[in-house]
Specification:
The protein is α+β, with helices and mostly antiparallel strands. It contains two helices and five strands; from the N terminus they run βαββαββ. It is 19% helix and 28% strand. The chain has a five-stranded antiparallel β-sheet with strand order 2-3-1-4-5.
């Protein structure tokens, strides 16, 4: 059995215009347990304070997962981060791995960042929604065929 690693994906809770996003973390968490990625365990730390490089956000949802330390898992987690960056219109999503080779990290950019624009309106939280209401579907057929985070 391969050794295990701990992956952290910093998921934005607002778009680049400061608008609150739907609960992308729960949708991604659900995908990890129902999609093709087979992880041992995962959990969400809500509204974590911090930042990286020059990202203006200071609060994120951290999605933590424990999974086999394989190149395939690295790729799957990176693809998930790219997809999150795309639907949230972030210039990148930060991923960190703690595993057999120490700590590694990556900034995963979207296929096309739309500078000066917010996230897709379907990803924005309505003011009438309950706090942390999950995103129903953050799939994007144009950029990530087959990677659906639908609930």
């Amino acid at each position: 059995m391969p050794k295990r690693s701990k992956y952290t994906v910093q998921i934005p809770i607002q778009d680049n215009l400061g608008q609150p996003l739907k609960d992308i973390a729960t949708a991604a968490h659900h995908y990890l347990h129902t999609g093709p990625i087979q992880n041992a365990a995962s959990k969400i730390y809500r509204n974590v304070e911090g930042n990286w490089r020059d990202d203006p956000q200071e609060r994120f949802d951290d999605l933590i997962l424990v999974a086999d330390d394989t190149p395939e898992m690295d790729s799957a987690v990176k693809q998930l981060a790219v997809h999150i960056a795309d639907v949230a219109n972030q210039w990148g999503v930060y991923v960190m791995k703690e595993g057999k080779n120490g700590i590694q990290d990556w900034v995963m950019p979207p296929p096309q960042f739309r500078k000066g624009e917010g996230a897709d309106p379907t990803m924005l939280k309505n003011v009438t929604e309950k706090p942390q209401e999950p995103a129903q579907d953050i799939s994007s057929p144009q950029t990530s065929p087959g990677l659906s985070l639908a609930q």
